[in-house]
Design a protein that fits this description.
Strand content: 25-35%
Order of helices and strands: EHEEEHEHEEEEHEEE
Structural class: alpha+beta
Length: 230
């Protein structure tokens, strides 16, 4: 297997807004996160591991108003004006990240499919338990491929965040990606992920189903040409 689902990305206008959304939508409070000096963002995390999706978490990410603006576009399309406007209304599922121990090999496999997964960047952040380090693919324009359906690649160096996250009562039940080319799916070989064509333009590019204390919750990803879905 080349890759596994690592985490889901929820974009919020602020971490306070993201925490309130998490409590209201999923019925739990996320754990602490940290600051990404490279991108001028910060986050909160929630463990969502399940038998189908082990070592998986949900990331609530927001632009850090106290941080210096980065010299490049931020990851996950966070600088997109339409997404910024949508985030002010409510946090949005925007993306999924897939981990691999062969980031260069998988990245070139996607490039050979005619896609632009981005360049691997080194990133890190401090935590109360020590430094987290990883490499992650980011496009020069900060955007994501296939309207966000093609997962970003991440390669952890050392400890994985899920090892230190408190257990939660939320679990990822299903992830659906729509519109990722078949050749790219063959490169990724993501277990347990459902894939569908992009023929239904009314559907979100990705959808995540979570088992929560409030019951089963379905999150549909934001899509700019539909004014946002969720």
């Amino acid at each position: 297997m080349n890759a596994r689902v690592d985490h889901l990305v929820i974009a919020a206008d602020s971490l306070e807004q993201g925490v309130a959304w998490c409590e209201g939508t999923l019925g739990v409070q996320p754990a602490g996160g940290g600051k990404h000096l490279l991108m001028g963002t910060h986050n909160r995390l929630l463990a969502i591991s399940s038998e189908r999706f082990p070592d998986c978490y949900l990331e609530i990410i927001a632009i850090d108003a106290e941080a210096a603006a980065p010299a490049r576009p931020r990851w996950f399309g966070l600088d997109d004006p339409l997404l910024r406007a949508a985030m002010r209304q409510q946090p949005r599922l925007v993306h999924a990240v897939a981990r691999t121990s062969m980031i260069e090999m998988v990245r070139w496999g996607l490039i050979n499919c005619g896609l632009n997964p981005g360049e691997p960047l080194f990133a890190q952040r401090d935590t109360p338990h020590g430094l987290l380090k990883w490499r992650i693919t980011v496009r020069d324009d900060g955007r994501t491929e296939c309207d966000g359906a093609l997962p970003t690649l991440i390669e952890w160096q050392g400890v994985h965040p899920s090892e230190r996250l408190p257990r939660s009562t939320v679990a990822l039940h299903e992830l659906v990606l729509r519109g990722v080319p078949t050749q790219a799916l063959d490169v990724l070989k993501l277990p347990a992920v459902q894939c569908a064509p992009a023929s239904d333009t009314a559907r979100a590019p990705l959808s995540a189903t979570l088992d929560t204390p409030r019951g089963r919750v379905v999150l549909d990803a934001w899509r700019s040409d539909a004014g946002g879905l969720q």
